[in-house]
Fold these 2 entries.
Entry 1:
Amino acid sequence: MQVTSITHGIIIDHVPAGRALKVLDFLGIDPRKTRLALIMNAESQSFGSKDIIKIEGDVVVDLNILALVAPSATVNIVRDSVIVSKEKPTLPLHVTNVIKCSNPRCVTSTERGIKQQFHLVRGHEDARGMQYRCDYCDEGAKL
Ligand SMILES: [Zn+2]
């Protein structure tokens, strides 16, 4: 069992380098109101570099939302300074109104009131987060 620097909370590991703040934003975690530590551009054996987010306290992470910004991430659950379980993001097949289409000419960009709907095209993790395509024009998401 790996001992951590937090006692009760979560560690989101293997976040793509430079994307930690985006992850907090998507998860609705306010860094000004949360006890957390960000480690940016840490060395990673499998990714070259990565970000790590450590959050003290009871935090609920939506693994579907995490999958959109950091599909390669691992969520470590920490109790009494020990990692007791690990969770992986689960890639939803369809996403509505979370991410936006990157195509400026897409109907979802040019017209109001149209849902931002995306579908999963590859079930495999992709560090660039482009595995979701717009239902209308098949472009990737803006992240
Ligand atoms: Zn589109």
Entry 2:
Amino acid sequence: MREDTIMVIGAGQMGSGIAQVCAQSGYNVYMYDVSDDQIQKGMKRISGQLVKQAEKGRMPHQDVKRIYQRLSPSASLEDAGGAFLIIEAAIENMDVKKDIFKRLDEQTEEGAILASNTSSLSITELASVTKKPQNVIGMHFMNPVPVMQLVEVIRGLETSDQTYDAVVTVAERLDKVPIEVHDFPGFISNRILMPMINEAVFALYEGVAEKESIDGIMKLGMNHPMGPLALADLIGLDTCLYIMETLHRGFGDDKYRPCPLLRQYVSAGRLGKKTGKGFYTYGGN
Ligand SMILES: NC(=O)c1ccc[n+]([C@@H]2O[C@H](COP(=O)([O-])OP(=O)(O)OC[C@H]3O[C@@H](n4cnc5c(N)ncnc54)[C@H](O)[C@@H]3O)[C@@H](O)[C@H]2O)c1
């Protein structure tokens, strides 16, 4: 196990962003995904981002190659054995994440930290499938990872202070601001954000206003940098639906009922920016 090596599980928009900031901060990074295509796309996304930053004068051009070389695509969870920290950023599904955590538990050394970038799922439940629940923690990055400052750090029931302190140190080295919360559905960020997005989808569904008007009102009237429907497209409508389902199930309160329109879009494969179509249509994706 090496103190300079992190493994990221999932090479989607969040996993590739997390891998990028880790490599930029000097860590060696394995990036794993079940889909080889996603790994290739993730590596391409990272190199594009690094080049863009160099072109904007935010880093010297010679750093691009140096940072990129710290990244290793991985096709095997066995690589986790070489990492002191594993950050899981696979799809927002408890069964998928539990399976990953169970396998990571077998592949990693005693002191390795198993973190999840889950947006809403119970860290305590994820930890329960491992033999080291004291080493399991939530490390919730925001999208887009290279831009957003916050890392919401979620303590599970058994998370040790040592694990918490280690993760805070890593987050600070990544130039992020860690803020601690306890393990409740949606934590703080998505307990507050996602019902607002869901309400915006209900307003569209009920014909209260056009999508551009809903987003325009929230941007101009509330000073939000982007409207809730555009933000839902950025997050991914599948992820939004999973989070609402977790809130609905977790609190048993119908105020968290996912809007049927959100469900319909997800069923149709309209997942937002990542598939080229959600509430809006995106080119070149
Ligand atoms: N999208 C956001 O704005 C956002 C923000 C914070 C946290 N998150 C969380 O980050 C996680 C990933 O979200 P995303 O937006 O990157 O989704 P995404 O759809 O872009 O990527 C998910 C990736 O997980 C991979 N995957 C599926 N099953 C896997 C498995 N068994 N092992 C390894 N990889 C697997 C998929 O191939 C895909 O590449 C989710 O838990 C999500 O809730 C998302």
